[in-house]
Amino acid sequence: MLQNTSGKPLDTHQKxxxxxxxxxxxGTFAEIGAGQEVVRWFFRVGGAAGTxxxxxxxxDMQVSDAIYGRAKRYVCRxxxxxxxxxxxxxxxxxxxxxxGETSTFFAFADxxxxxxxxxxxxxxxxxxxxxxxxxxxxxxxxxxxxxMLDNEMALQQEALGIVGVNLVYAAFNYHHEPELxxxxxxxxxxxxxxxxxxxxFSGIAFRxxxxxxxxxxxxxxxxxxxxxxxxxxxxxxxSEFLYKKPILVERGSFRPVCNVNLDMLNCAHEKFSQLxxxxxxxxxxxxxxxxxxxxxxxxxxxxxxxxxxxxxxxxGMNVLISxxxxxxxxxxxxxxxxNEHIGVVMGAASLRELFDEKYYTTxxxxxxxxxxxxxxxxxxxxxxxxxxxxTDELLTCExxxxxxxxxxxxxxxxxxxGISDLDNYNPDCLGIFSRDVLRKIGDxxxxxxxxxxxxxxxxxxxxxxxDYQCPDDDSCAVT
Length: 479
Known about the structure:
The protein is α/β, with parallel strands linked by helices. It has 17 helices and 16 strands. Helix 11 (302-314) runs antiparallel to helix 17 (454-463) and helix 12 (327-337) packs parallel to helix 14 (366-374). It starts with 11 loop residues before the first helix and ends in a 16-residue tail after the last helix.
């Protein structure tokens, strides 16, 4: 990271000035929503004529539509992309012949909903930069989604300006080190002021970047409590993807995805989709991994993380990485993304653990407060049975052993239908556990292939995931 003469990282003023004094950088700032908070820094520090070809703000909806085309919403990724494409194309068209040999052109844009005069709903925005890393280079692009957490409009505007300067500076100076780039986005800020819950790299400078790892980095650094990507690896902004959708989520290690994991989701989906307020609606199904799970053996193993992501992708699943170990925190986060019903599917052993009071010692109201938060928004838990290997007993909601002092609370949640049994399970899946599958993979016992979906077996064998080292014989042939 570049530093000033005192050895400290450059502050916002120094970053903006260094860009203004770099005669290679030349481009446009287009900002909608909270004022021209980013470009203001470049005007303020001096030397802006060397950097800014144009600065604009199309506040009026009709004017904005006339310039960038119509959009369903004005604070959305679609609008941001239209702004970046339009402004960058104009720079190339108007300026390449004149200074294309020595200049790298860029377009910075943001579309933001900051706190209004009367307060209002969530304050958030889309921000991005489309740029050339070198003169006459093909385009590269970074897009982020931010949530502004300050309570005062002036503070939100200040934070927005700082993160915007950080993004522009990082694009020019750290495009060859994307992890350092991500780490620098909150220079001069804190996570109590700005949250970045989505980042996407694209274009020639980032052709080797795996955006799933960058999503993981956001959560690992604490820039966001959660990040999300689709089965095809496309990063998703959770509140936009989940907007007005019922959500069904399964938490697990998914190391690897087993038949039981899919049976749990399928059984829960069958029940969940028949709820009166859910019936006929598209349900967003998610597999969630917590940071605690990923760090179970110390530092995060990125190869292991990508292996899990790839086996989930083989099942066509959307993936959520979260730092919300407590289920009530996960429930609150999902409720922020949608006003529709939320379902959580878990095994009977996980449900029993949910009633362990050691997880709630930091709450003033203890376990009662945790369940009050968890079920606040009509969240519903679906319990998948567990067959006890020692007694062959089937553990369900009705037979689960809960401490006597919590029995009344447990019965209350059952009777109000906050917790429901899944009785539509496949009995063949009850004896499948991921730890057994991993052991069989390591032992080259081919029976593991019958315990996972065929696409999962295929990708594990082709890419040698989870230390797969089976010799090339007929018993281990890809099916």
